[in-house]
Amino acid sequence: MITASPQSRLSPAAPDWRALWRDAITDPKELLRAVGLGERTDLIPPDDAGFALRVPRGFVARMRHNDPTDPLLLQVLPQAAEHDRVAGFTMDAVGDMASRTGQGFLHKYHGRALLIASGSCAVNCRYCFRRHFPYGEEIAAAGQWRDALAQLEADPSISELILSGGDPLSLATSKLADLSRGLAEMPHVRRLRIHTRLPVVLPERIDDAFLKWLASLPLQKVVVLHANHANEFDAGVDAACARLRGAGATLLNQSVLLRGINNHVDTLTDLSERMFAAGVLPYYLHQLDRVHGTAHFEVGDAEAMALLEALRARLPGYLVPRLVREIGGDTSKRPIGG
Ligand SMILES: *Cc1c(COP(=O)(O)O)cnc(C)c1O
Ligand code: SF4
User: Fold this and answer.
1) What is the CATH number of domain 97-335?
2) Whose alpha carbon is nearest atom 8 of ligand 1?
3) Which of the four pLDDT bands, split at 50, 70 and 90, describes residue 95?
4) Over 80: is that where the pLDDT of 11 sits?
5) Where are the domains of the chain?
6) What pLDDT does 94 receive?
C-alpha cells in the first residue's frame, strides 16, 4: 500500500501521483479480488504473454463488481487469446520499430513532429502496440532533450510539437520544463500537443505544479486524452479535465475501437456524450494497430463503418470521432470509409 511521503503527510487531500503510480495493481489475482471475482481464477491465463498487468487502483475502482465482461477490466486483464498467432498481426504493425526505439523523434506528417517522450505508462493496455517495445523510461527526454531540440531548431516547417509515448506525463514536471525552456528559442513551434492517458487513469497527475507549468507556456496547448468507454470518466477525471481547460488547454480524446469493449453504437454514443460533459471533444476512433497478441480485440472495417454511420445518425457532428487507421508511409492517418 501507499507509504506516506513527507509531501502527502503535509497535504493528505492531494496524494502524490508518484505514490499512487507505484501502488498500482500488478498481480492478476489481486485485481480479480478487487472486483469481486476472486474465485474466478479460470479467467487468468498461465502467463501474461510477456506484458505485465498494470493498473492504478483508482481506475480499478471504476470497474463493475462481479462482472468478467466489464469494459475497463477487459482493457487490462491478460487473456489466453494473446498467445494466438493470427495472420497479419506482427510485432511492428506501423513500421516504426526503428524510430520508436531510437531517439524517439518522428517526423512523418507535415508541420508536426512527434516525440516518444517516455516509454512508461501508468496502465498497461492489452491492445497496445507498446507491448512489444522494450524501451526504457526516457527516450526523447534523455540528455535534457538535446537531440529533439536540435532537430526542432533545424526545421522551421515544424509548427506543432507532439509529446507522445508511452505516456509523456510519466515524466516529472521539471523534465517537461526543461523541454519548454528549449522551445522558447524556437518561435516557429507555436503549438504543444500532449497525448496522454494519465488524466483518465491517474487524474492525480494533473497537480498544481503541472498546471502552473502548462499555464505558463507561451504556446497553444492541446491535450489529447485516451478513453475508450464512458465508465472511465468519474468525478476525479472531470476535475482533472476542468483544471486542464483552466490552464488553457483544448481537450480532445482518441479511442481505439475494441471488440467486446466499445463496438456498439450505444457504447460509443455514451462515450462521446460523457467526454463532452467533461469538456472533451472526440478526435480519433482508431482501428487497432495489428500487433501480435491483440487480434481478439479487432473489429472489421465493415462493422466499424456501420457503427460510424449509426453514430452519425444519432449525434451532432462534433461528437462523432474520425474513424482512422495508421498506415506506415502515409502522410496522415488514413480515414476509413471517407
Ligand atoms: C498520429 C501521428 C501524428 C499526429 O497526427 P494528427 O493527425 O495530427 O493527429 C503526428 N506524427 C506521427 C508520427 C503520428 O503517428
Ligand atoms: S501507450 Fe497508451 S494505450 Fe499503450 S499502454 Fe500506454 S496508455 Fe495504454
Assistant:
1) 3.20.20.70
2) 112
3) low
4) no
5) 17-83, 97-335
6) 67
